[in-house]
Write a structure and sequence with these properties.
alpha+beta; Rossmann fold; 6-stranded mixed beta sheet; 5-stranded mixed beta sheet
Length: 988
Amino acid sequence: MVSIDNIKQFIRLFLKKDFTAQLINEYIILFENYYEQYKGMKNESKDSEFLYTILEQTTLQINATMPQKYRLQLVIRLLIFEKYIFKYFQQQLAGNKSIHWVLQSVAENFKINPSDFLNCKSFINEKLFDISNKKDLLVFGSKKLFDTEFTFIEKENIGGQIYFLHIANVETILFYYKGSENLKLNHNLIFTDNIYILNKGTVISFENSAPIYFNDILKLFLTDNVPKISIRVNNLEYRYRNSKNGVHNLSVTFNTGQLVGIIGRSGVGKSTLLNLLNGSLKPDKGDVLINHINLYTETKNTEGLIGFIPQDDLLIEELTVYENLFLNSQLCLGELTKDEINEKVNNLLIDLDLFDIRDLKTGSPLNKFISGGQRKRLNIALELIREPWILLADEPTSGLSSSDADEIMKLLTEQAIKGKIVIINIHQPSSDNFKLFDEILVLDKEGYTVYFGNPVDSITYFNETTGRYINSSDHCDICGNINHESVFRIIEEKKIDEFGNSTNERKVSPEEWNRLFIEKNSKPEHQTYTNDDLPSVLFKKPGKFKQFIIFSKRNFLSKISNNQYIFLSVLVSPVLALILSLLCRSGVDPYNPDSGYIFAFNKNIHAYLFMSVIVALFIGLIISAEEIFKDRGILKRESFLKLDKKSYLLSKIGFLFFLSLIQTFLYVSIGNFILEIKEMFLIYWLVLFATSFFANILGLLISTVFNSVIVIYILVPILIVPQLLLSGVVVQYDQLNKNFVSQQYTPIIGDIMASRWAYEALMVAQFKNNPYQKSYFDIEMDESNVKFDLIFLIPVLSKTLNEIMQDSDHPENSERINKITLLKNGLKKIDYAGGFKNINQVNPNELTNEMITRTENYLKTAKTYYGKRLNNLSIDKDKITRALHKNIGDNKSFNEFKNKHYNVKLAEIVLNRTNLETYTVSENVILRKIEPIYQVPDSKSGRAQFYSSTKKIGRHTMNTLAFNIITLWIMTIIVSILLYLLFSKKPF
């Protein structure tokens, strides 16, 4: 029988590589105590009872803290221990029964899959044909010795065979070696027939052959029937303008199933390289081939093949976890039905351990509803849902705890195992995560590539290149720990001066490291790639209209789930309407102060209308100014996916259209009700809505152009101030700087202000279209124009004609010429008898005495005609009044009707009653100043005096309300076109 000392010696050897000497001694003492208790048992029943109790207690404690993978590894070690006992135990029958029962009980209590237990037992005892699934076996050797169902990989110069067993349920690999060569596992000698567990980051090295890495073995088990993909980077060169930074002369190849890490100090070009690899940036020279397809010139063929996970958060904070992923999926999986997408989304949420939080809002990184690790997994899910074959991730573990970072790396590793090429830009990986990479690409200053290869070999490469010794803190052969910072420390090592002090000069420059890298990387084994056809992808963009619907739904859901936004958007307009209308509700009959509020005597209506325009502009700007800016990260991704920008933009515009419609509806409803503005609701609503929507588009424009939210909100008041100043209210147009003033029309600087068109439309419509004034307006307009011609224009022209006659002796006199021009321009304004027939002869050369006489007679006849016409208009006006009295009632009812609809102060403003100047002469033209609302404009291009009731376009005359609303929409369309052009070109 084997002695207890031999067993204790085996236990020491068994524990030596994992524990310190002190802990080993403690465990030996624990073993001795259990052995003494066991030895004291006299009969078999007590013996079994003791073992059962101890095993049950121990396994229960272990189950509470140890994951399944490590439970199986513990059982594997016990199986190895059993093999050792059988090797030395002579009386095997009793021992076999006892030890087998113990191991069987431990495996059952650990909930180990029975098939996994039997497979491990058969493999450890080298009974390979007893293993149930032969696909879980893999043999490396220089020559195949016999035909089996096992997968055989030929590898020269290894002096025997290496046998691997894959336990898929817990992703564990066992191996043993039978041969004569000196093999090493992480620089530790491998003994023939010993069983080893192959952990992530481990490497089996040979004397005369290339090493085998953990990831290589794992992928041989897991990547059956996976399409072959390679990314060939050929002489890639990119430099930022006026800088040496970028990417320099890079040539590498990435192949199917590789997990590649790009590491380097901050600012060396890691993110730039990812953007070159995903096609967002185009290189100055060189190309990237995916199989045989050029990434930059054949973009249609590579669409959907590449997934990119940027460092920035791409979640819409107001949406739930499920909504973020589902709506994103609808934009990427256009050929799937809603039910198919729903099933796919739920399955992915389950796989990523996010299903339990599917109904939680994602929130923002600062206002969290889910953890940082969950946010990052959801960001990754946005790409995984469309199953790209190439996955690029920019700093996926940035800002995460070590446990969350490990989860993310595990997730990305699983994608590589499935056959995808996964390339990660990573800043500070842990040792375990560092060893997960199949290859690492090390970038030095200015973007020079200095290493591309297995991470386990990286420190050895740099040490051997510089002739340094390997520090145990850099790479521990016992525990397998690798300090990736050692790579940077070696690369950036400084020269020492004669006094032993470090200088600022590096021992090896980035250019020199790059030269060494190019020499090493030019070897044939680094240039393997495939030219197979590209695999099919699930990604399929929906049609543009469907994209518009999805974008609109996403936008709507994000808004209605934001309580603060709903509160601000819905209540701000009625609250402001309430405040303004209550403050402006003032007006009583001066002859009857106790009569209460009367609309006719409210002196604040014009101020209310002006402030209504400003409120519409302000709210329209505020609700839209950040709309595009806050989506810039999402837009960058959607640009990468080549989704339709126009559909996105139209969804924003459509939402703001309906929101402004609701806001202005509420505003007008409350304001008009409190101020008792009757039967003007639709007009006010149309004008204020057009104004607010113009501001919406303007807000989207600044949201597109500027990249700072501070700048955007500083711009809002800057845009509002000119609307205040140049509206024609705060400063009258004829009081502006003379360089901007036009005596005949509103100045051009005023015509480009939306406030001018909106305010004028409201003022004119309120005066002209109210139920009282609309009965009189046309006849009063004729009356006003006849009065002006009769009382002012004809007398001025007659006087001018007399002065011209008196100056007939000086025909070349400039003053006389100006008077003739004034006369001619004045005659054009008189419409009697179709106008003056000989108007073209009114000039300095042809103005004879006969022509002067004709002109004089025309003016006299016109004066007589206008006098009669004025009398007729007065009679017609009286008829209208009598008709109204008949319909309305007595004088009291008539006055009440008038007071409800006609506002005295507003009429005073549009009739310019406060200005004593009835006309002025400017550039030999008589310009009317009184009652501008009744004056017919001369211009046929739409220009007119402020408060004009009509505008002319060519031969057509339009009422001001319609013209101004159309003008507001034309301004909106112009800004929309500018918005679209800038938005479509912006890369975000």
